[in-house]
Amino acid sequence: MTTNILTDTEQAIFDGLPGPPMETVVKATDIWVIEWLPLSDQPTGKLLHGWVQRRRQGWSACFESKNKSEVLSFIKHAIDIAKKSQMCLVLHLEVHGDADKNGLVGLHGNGGWELLEWNELIGSIQRSNLETHCNLVVVVAACIGFAGIMALV
After folding, report:
1. How far apart are CA 43 and CA 37, in angstroms?
2. Based on the structure, what is the number of domains in the chain?
3. Domain membership flag for residue 133
4. Phi, psi (deg, nearest 5) at residue 129
5. Which of 37, 75, 108, 134 could form a disulfide with 124 if both were Cys (CB 3.0 to 4.6 A apart)?
6. How are beta strands 113-117 and 89-97 bridged, if at all?
7. Pairing of strands 103-107, 89-97
8. Residue 101 lies in a domain
C-alpha cells in the first residue's frame, strides 16, 4: 500500500510539471576550472586541467584567480560566452572553504585572506545556469565545502 504524501493541490502541480527530456541527451561542451588557492598549496585545479587536456584537447580551460573579484569575473566571462553559444558547462571551483560556513576563502591580492560569501556566488551561478539553458554542473572542491551544497539547495 502506498501513501500519498502530497496534498491534492500539490499533486496537481507535480503532475503538471514537464518530465525529463526523453529524446535529447545533453553532454558537457566545456569544463572551466577556476583555481583560487595560495601558491603554497598543491595546484590541484591545474592538475585537473592537465589531466582533462591529455584526454580531450581543448575541452578544458583553467583560470587562476588572485582574488574573489577575479573568480566572479571568470564566471561572468562564462556567462558572456554562453549567451552566444550552446555551451553546456562544468564549472569546477578549486578553493578553500570557510570554517564558519559563510562561503569560500582565498588569498586577496595583498596576501591576506578574503571571503567570497555564498550570496555573492549564488547570483553568478544562477545566471550561468540560465545562460546555459539549465545545462550547468557546478563542482565546489573545497576543504570545507558541505556548506556550499546547503547554500545551493
Report:
1. 7
2. 1
3. yes
4. -65, -40
5. 75
6. unpaired
7. antiparallel
8. no
* Nine cell digits for residue 131: 545562460
Q: Compute the distance between CA of residue 101 and CA of residue 1 in angstroms, rounded to an integer.
A: 42
For residue 110, being part of any structural domain is answered with yes
Q: What does the pLDDT look like over 18-65, one tens digit per residue?
A: 666 555 656 778 889 999 998 888 898 999 999 999 998 988 999 999
The kind and range of the H/E element at 141 are strand 136-141
| Chain segment 101-148, per-residue pLDDT in tens | 788 888 887 778 899 998 899 988 988 888 888 888 888 887 755 555
Q: CA triplet 46, 50, 53: central angle to 5 degrees?
A: 135
CA angle 94, 69, 72 (to 5 degrees): 60
Residues 6+ apart with CB under 8 A from 81: 87
The identity of residue 77, as a single letter, is H
Asked whether residue 39 is assigned to any structural domain, the reply reads: no
Q: CA-CA distance, 144 to 96, in Å (whole number)?
A: 7
Where in the sequence is the domain holding 92, given as residue range(s)?
Answer: 45-96+106-153
SS3 letters across 66-123: CCHHHHHHHHHHHHHHHHHCCCCEEEEEEEEECCCCCEEEEECCCCCEEEEEHHHHHH
